[in-house]
Amino acid sequence: MIPSDVAARLQLTADAAVTRVPTAQQVTDALADLVPGQRVLAEIQALLPNGAYRALINQRDVTLALPFSAKSGDSLELEVVDQDGKLALALVGRRSETAGNLPPEQRPAVETTLSRTGNFIAGLLARQEGGEGTRPALLNANQPIAPSAPTSSEALVPLLRQAIHQSGMFYESHQAQWVSSRMPVDALLAEPQGRHSVVAQAAGEATTAASITAARAQPEGEARSTAAPGTAVTEAARPTQPALPPGQLVAPDLVPLVQQQLEALASQTYVWQGQAWPGQPMRWEIEEDGHRNTDGEPDTQTQWQTRLTLTMPELGEVRAAIRLSGGEIAMTLSAGDNDAAMRLAGSGEELRKKLEAAGLTVAGFTVGRHEREEG
Question: What value, to the nearest 5°, has the Cα angle with vertex 139 and ends 135 and 142?
Answer without folding.
Answer: 85
